């Protein structure tokens, strides 16, 4: 296959992708550089002192891993200087991240999970970075939270980097979903998975079954369906759950299947489950829909949900269209 870089691919699709303006290309370039720097650190994590915890607790109430913090700082440092953003929001930061006055700004808003799957960092299991890009509605007064709290359908682009057996980038600007693999010898992400489509029905379900006793009856009925020999396939789906959304999602995107993080009663402070709407569910929902799949919270399309706050959590059922439709049918009864 001719070696096509991400930026070449974006420019080739320029006519189809209104996002391929110079400023968007600049944004993507800086994000790619940040990912290469994070990938380098992840790939030598066992050798240098970036394993373990920083000893701090983040806004999510979670222990901050050194690589979480490192990835967060790398992205903020690079993207502040990109000259195309008016604001950023990170899973690791309680509030909006302003762009210091000394840097140029633009109309794009970047929301990101700097390192997804943190519990897997120290045991060499795939982890990733998730990003979601919006344009602010009004370019007049200074950016406010309402510019950022847009529903997922308004995203102009979304994607993720996955640091696994290889480092990949998967993203969409609304014109298909495309995968690129990092060739470390040239330091470029090269097109390896053009126009990804998720199989209409999968053979895999991904959920943390240890929460069974914290689920409501409908959720139990959904999970029981996928592992039942009496389901429409006539045989149980295979359970595959890594504990990194990016890795579980990426596998199901390519092979077909459904990933579920339902609402549960294990933590009264988090009745909607653990995953965040803005930096996890929305970007993955945009990708899966442009790959022919579906993403709901059980009843509502993820991309239609009007966010009320920055770190809002949402139940997530995402993947092959027929499998997610089955979830909607059970919840809708
Ligand atoms: P993060 O590391 O960014 O906090 O995300 C971890 C998330 C997601 O990657 C994964 O699907 C989920 O946590 C696993 O949660 P459980 O351990 O509760 O199953
Ligand atoms: Mn995450
Ligand atoms: Mn994270």
In short:
With 333 residues, the chain is of the alpha+beta class.
Helix-strand layout with pairing:
Blueprint: H1 6-12, H2 22-43, E1 53-57, E2 63-65, H3 66-80, E3 85-90, E4 108-116, E5 127-135, H4 145-148, E6 157-163, E7 167-172, E8 177-183, E9 188-193, E10 204-206, H5 217-226, E11 238-239, H6 245-255, E12 258-261, H7 277-290, E13 294-296, E14 316-319, H8 321-332
Helix pairs in contact: 2-3, 5-8
Account of the protein in words:
- With 333 residues, the chain is an alpha+beta fold.
- The chain folds into 2 domains: 6-193, Fructose-1,6-Bisphosphatase, subunit A, domain 1 (Fructose-1,6-Bisphosphatase, Chain A, domain 1, 2-Layer Sandwich), CATH 3.30.540.10; 204-331, D-Maltodextrin-Binding Protein, domain 2.
- It is 29% helix and 22% strand.
- It contains 8 helices and 14 strands.
- The strands form 3 sheets. Strands 3-4-5-6-7-8-9 form a 7-stranded mixed sheet, with helices on both faces.
- α2 (22-43) runs antiparallel to α3 (66-80) and α5 runs antiparallel to α8 (321-332).
- The chain is globular.
- The model has no long low-confidence stretch (mean pLDDT 93).
- The structure holds 2,5-anhydro-1,6-di-O-phosphono-D-glucitol (AHG) and manganese (II) ion (2 copies).
- One manganese (II) ion is lined by residues 113, 116, 245, 280.
* Number of distinct beta strands: 14
Count of all domains: 2
Report the sheet with the most strands, covering strand number, pairing sense and barrel closure: 7 strands, mixed
Q: Provide the β-strand percentage band.
A: 15-25%
Q: Report strand order across the widest sheet.
A: 3-4-5-6-7-8-9
SS element count, helices: 8
SSE string, helices as H and strands as E: HHEEHEEEHEEEEEHEHEHEEH
Q: CATH top level of the largest domain?
A: Alpha Beta
Quote the CATH topology of the largest domain.
Fructose-1,6-Bisphosphatase, Chain A, domain 1
Mean pLDDT: 93
